[in-house]
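Quick review question:
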């Protein structure tokens, strides 16, 4: 089934470039191209749209304000000439953020985040993704990091330092051995960015680093002096992953 796309941009050239890119891919179908957010809103009322390529600086209504106004927005890839909006764009759970001029290779990489098969992902909160077969090498993982917005700054966090992540409604608490970062972020969005062979969702409110688990039972895992509960909907899959890892290590 093709992914139905809409392009919103006030620059005719940008519209033409993105339409050309969309038409190159057999799994994408362009259903609307709009010059502004008002036209886009009208299109959304009449068409099913799965993916939105959205400019930010537009007359009448910015792309960010337009996205905030949608109760059930499609997946969004921002396309803009301005780097300054990147943080706000990702806080709105954008799939990607493309800077103009956009190369086709970069466009393809962004689209692949949407077109990757979802069959391995859960349709209910109960499922836990199995470890990815192609894990990062220890060297590359030790160098991997993410940036989280905290106290109006972008804070660098090394993945190897993370002990666990806790959801606090619209915020997350990222706990390392030396610090604690509170960031305005959804835990599900961050979960998609973490390597599944290193991190495990054990509860709707907790993701843990598997190599930091010192002990576990049917109801909880121990990381340092902290006991973290295993959610009952996650229990079977979590224990399967942990027991499998235990067998591999013995």
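Suggested answer, residue by residue:
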């Amino acid at each position: 089934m093709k992914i139905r796309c809409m392009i919103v941009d006030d620059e005719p050239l940008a519209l033409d470039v993105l339409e050309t890119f969309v038409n190159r891919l057999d799994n994408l179908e362009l259903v609307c191209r709009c010059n502004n957010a008002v036209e886009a809103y009208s299109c959304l009322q009449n068409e099913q749209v799965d993916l939105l390529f959205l400019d930010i600086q537009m007359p009448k209504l910015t792309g960010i304000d337009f996205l905030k106004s949608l109760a059930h927005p499609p997946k969004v890839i921002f396309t803009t000439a301005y780097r300054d909006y990147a943080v706000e764009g990702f806080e709105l759970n954008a799939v990607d953020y493309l800077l103009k001029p956009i190369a086709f290779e970069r466009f393809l990489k962004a689209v692949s985040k949407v077109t990757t098969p979802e069959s391995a992902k859960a349709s209910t909160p109960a499922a836990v993704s199995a470890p990815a077969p192609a894990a990062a090498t220890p060297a590359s993982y030790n160098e991997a990091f993410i940036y989280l917005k905290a106290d109006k700054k972008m804070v660098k966090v090394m993945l190897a330092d993370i002990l666990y992540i806790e959801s606090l409604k619209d915020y997350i608490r990222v706990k390392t051995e030396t610090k604690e970062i509170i960031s305005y972020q959804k835990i599900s969005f961050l979960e998609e960015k973490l390597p599944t062979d290193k991190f495990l969702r054990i509860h709707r409110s907790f993701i843990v680093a598997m190599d930091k688990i010192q002990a576990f039972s049917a109801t909880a895992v121990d990381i340092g002096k902290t006991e973290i509960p295993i959610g009952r909907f996650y229990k079977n899959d979590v224990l399967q992953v942990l027991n499998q890892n235990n067998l591999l290590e013995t």
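Why it works: Residues 235-249 form the longest helix (15 residues). The chain has a mean pLDDT of 83.
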